[in-house]
Write a structure and sequence with these properties.
The complex is a heterodimer of chains A (about 230) and B (about 350). With about 230 residues, chain A is mostly helical. Chain A contains 8 helices and no strands. The chains are: A mainly alpha (about 230), B alpha+beta (about 350). Chains A and B meet through helix 6, helix 7 and helix 8 of A and helix 4 and helix 5 of B.
């Protein structure tokens, strides 16, 4: 099989499994919903939803996405039974596998981010005025989170499927991402149009999003091999 | 491999660090003015200011002519009737006429002193003039911009620069800053070892990568500790919101995660390979983070703007005399500790076989 078709078949397989196993999808949705609910109640009973500053809003928003995407992406490697990797090993190249996982998690995290935004704006509020910048931020954020945690999930799955390990490995590395994401979404709340700083931050995120999958592609064969 | 066991660079490190530790505690600070009183004055009367010098030599034989000026903008007003009380204190008389007050560039006067041993020393914005509401034209008080005649501009003995805010803690430059050099050197060494391990598969390089991270963490923690003590003394808090500090904390966290990762895999070859992959991945992301973010935001640290006491931070020649040996000495010490850790690990592995 060539690279493209093997990526496609793994991707399709993962998507099909996801839809057949709807309780995983439902679990993640409920996870997002209940975390928004926790934040909503914490804010509501202190009467501070109205005075939520743009920065606090974006920090809360990206933290919810962070935790729910960690939970969702942890499944991508942990779910596969021990023996199946041997089977893949005979069938496809490691690059195809990691590419498929990256694509799948990207789609998943993007959906998750949009959904979180929907629930968040329904329940808490929607202060965004600059939708183009905000959408770019969501796409770049989804990419960054999914690429980083896919790699970490691959590493953690080799270290005995330890979900704590994934957080320990990934959280220090997610800090630069969070800084730029919150900056960008706070900018999307505060002002319309593209300022010079916004463009600079978008370039920074793009740089992170190019470096991460490149490293993942280079290093995954070593992680995967038994 | 043999370089782990050779001795000359370890001796070099010991000699350099001995020189640095002795030197950094023996060399005094250069002269400065630590205090002046009163802190403010009004025009049209003569005031007696008591000036407290820091490490000055007013009573020494070769001190020559001791002079003080009150500097506002580019005008040097001469202080008169100098009365030396001790090696570090003196009294001068100074007053300014109310007809002069409007020609001043600023109401804050720098105090500048000079003598033959101590060279020129100063206190920035030491005294403030409280302007009179009316100009008294009959006033006889008149400050004169005296002739500035100096023999030596620079102090005549080996001394570290006297800087406000820092004072004696400037010696920490030889301890705090090199810690980060050592950590960076060891971490990049570990990166190289990880890359070699993944391409060659020689398990020796895995031991190298692992032990250099352990040594780097040791120096990272020392760097944080020395930095925290320094920050408490200069910036007022053990921890301040500063991109370099936060970057350092993240770096230390990443390498603790690396050790946790190693600890959670039992199979040796698998552990070596996955740890190497994580090491490369995290270091590249971390390097992006540490080299880009401090350039985007202001830092309290020198070289990034922000702190006035540091903004003209140029290593003075007396600091350089110790800073370069200190950097080399500490880096060699880092690799010395690394070599001991590595040899210990190799012996342990041999015993297990």
């Amino acid at each position: 099989m060539n690279l493209f078709s093997s990526v496609k078949s793994i991707l399709v397989k993962d998507l099909i499994i996801e839809f057949r196993n709807r309780y995983v999808l439902g679990g993640i949705l409920l996870y997002v919903f209940s975390s928004v609910l926790v934040i909503y109640f914490a804010l509501q009973y202190n009467n501070s939803i109205q005075e939520l500053s743009p920065v606090v809003w974006s920090v809360l928003f990206w933290l919810i996405i962070l935790f729910s995407s960690v939970n969702a992406i942890a499944n991508s490697f942990f779910r596969e039974p021990e023996g199946r990797f041997f089977y893949y090993y005979w069938l496809i190249s490691p690059q195809a596998l990691i590419l498929a996982k990256l694509c799948y998690n990207f789609i998943f995290t993007l959906g998750l981010s949009l959904l979180t935004f929907g629930i968040f704006s329904l329940m808490v509020n929607d202060p965004v005025v600059n939708y183009p910048v905000f959408l770019i931020t969501i796409v770049l954020g989804g990419t960054g989170y999914s690429f980083l945690f896919t790699t970490m999930s691959a590493i953690a799955s080799r270290a005995g499927n330890n979900a704590t390990l994934m957080a320990v490995l990934g959280f220090p590395l997610v800090i630069p991402l969070i800084i730029f994401l919150t900056k960008l979404s706070a900018a999307a709340i505060a002002s319309p149009g593209f300022t010079e700083e916004t463009v600079k931050n978008i370039w920074m995120l793009l740089a992170f999003n190019i470096v991460q999958p490149t490293l993942a592609l280079i290093l995954f064969p070593y992680i995967w091999r038994d | 491999m043999n370089w782990l066991y050779t001795k000359w660079w370890k001796w070099l490190s010991a000699v350099l660090l001995f020189y640095v530790v002795i030197g950094s505690y023996m060399v005094p600070l250069s002269p400065g003015i630590s205090k002046i009183g009163p802190l403010s004055f009004s025009p049209d009367s003569i005031y007696t200011f008591t000036i407290s010098g820091y490490h000055t030599h007013f009573k020494d034989p070769g001190v020559g002519k001791i002079q003080f000026w009150f500097k506002s903008g580019n005008d040097y007003f001469q202080a008169k009737d100098l009365n030396i009380l001790s090696a570090n204190t003196g009294e001068v008389k100074f007053g300014i006429g109310s007809n002069q007050q409007d020609s001043l560039k600023t109401n804050n006067f720098d105090i500048i002193g000079n003598d033959d041993i101590d060279g020129t020393f100063a206190l920035r914005e030491g005294v403030t003039l409280i302007k009179a509401s009316k100009v008294d034209s009959s006033s006889t008080v008149n400050a004169t911009t005296g002739p500035v005649e100096v023999v030596h501009n620079k102090h005549q003995f080996l001394a570290f620069p006297y800087r406000e805010i820092l004072y004696e803690s400037i010696r920490n430059t030889f301890f705090h800053v090199p810690m980060w050099f050592v950590m960076t050197a060891l971490v990049f060494f570990s990166l190289v070892c990880s890359v070699i391990y993944l391409t060659k598969g020689n398990s020796l390089y895995d031991v190298f990568a692992h032990q250099s991270i352990v040594a780097a963490l040791l120096f990272g923690i020392c760097g944080l500790a020395t930095g925290m003590v320094w920050a408490k003394n200069t910036w007022g808090h053990y921890w301040v919101n500063d991109p370099k500090l936060n970057g350092a904390a993240v770096g230390v966290m990443i390498y603790f995660a690396y050790l946790v990762l190693r600890g959670s895999i039992t199979d040796e070859i698998k552990r070596a390979r996955i740890a190497a992959a994580y090491n490369i991945f995290s270091l590249v992301i971390f390097a992006l983070f540490i080299y880009i973010i401090p350039r985007l935001t202001d830092s309290l640290h020198p070289g990034n703007g922000g702190n006035p006491a540091f903004s003209k931070y140029d290593l003075d020649s007396s600091l350089r005399m110790f800073f370069y040996p200190a950097s080399i000495g500490w880096i060699l010490l880092g690799f010395w500790i690394f070599s001991i850790l590595t040899r210990l690990e190799l012996i342990k592995q041999k015993q297990e076989l």
